[in-house]
Specification:
Blueprint lengths: L1 E3 L8 E7 L11 E16 L2 E15 L6 E16 L3 H4 L11 E5 L3 E3 H12 L28 H20 L2
Parallel strand pairs: 5-6
Antiparallel strand pairs: 1-7, 2-3, 3-4, 4-5
This protein binds zinc ion (2 copies).
Length: 176
């Protein structure tokens, strides 16, 4: 979805789009849309500056940090972004006023704001840095790569057994 800037009213206009799971790629190896994602909001323009505020509702599937299995993350994002033409990017780096914390400044090209790109960025920003399929996920064996939630491989025991054996020896020595 794109919003043409030269036709945009200063009073603003509403937009809404429901993305199917394959309609918007997050361009991230470990995250993809699951089910429908609703993006809606209002855009207004003043000369060549555009402000867009709205919300995103949907579910993203990410990979578990330990076992790489799928984890569904529900998202409800409110965003508030400002856009200026790409050509003005160079002059703006010194403009401190535009670096307010809650106002993300972005650029648009070819006279239109790309809502797909905005939604993708907002979703990726909102994703948790670490995500586990469940708190007690046992992850993958670092030696053989097997999913330890599913199988108990033999290499893990070989690694851990000598240490336990040493502890057991100490305990024995403590006894009179
Ligand atoms: Zn896991
Ligand atoms: Zn193993």
């Amino acid at each position: 979805m794109r919003i043409e800037v030269d036709r945009l009213a200063e009073t603003g206009e509403s937009f809404a789009h429901t993305y199917g799971p394959d309609e918007l790629s997050l361009e991230d190896e470990y995250a993809r849309l699951k089910g429908e994602t609703q993006v809606s909001g209002r855009a207004s323009g003043k000369r060549d500056e555009v402000s867009v505020r709205g919300e995103i509702k949907g579910t993203v599937e990410v990979a578990c940090d330990r076992c790489a299995g799928p984890v569904a993350v529900g998202l409800e994002i409110e965003f508030n972004a400002a856009f200026v033409p790409r050509e003005r990017a160079a002059g703006l780096t010194e403009n401190v006023e535009l670096q307010e914390e809650d106002l993300a400044l972005s650029y648009y090209e070819d006279g239109a704001v790309d809502i797909d790109e905005l939604a993708r960025e907002q979703i990726l920003l909102a994703l948790p840095l670490r995500q586990l399929c469940r708190e007690e996920c046992r992850g993958l064996c670092p030696a053989c790569g097997k999913d330890l939630n599913v199988v108990q491989c033999s290499c893990q025991q070989v690694e851990i057994d000598p240490r336990w054996a040493a502890l057991a020896d100490l305990k024995k020595e403590e006894k009179p």
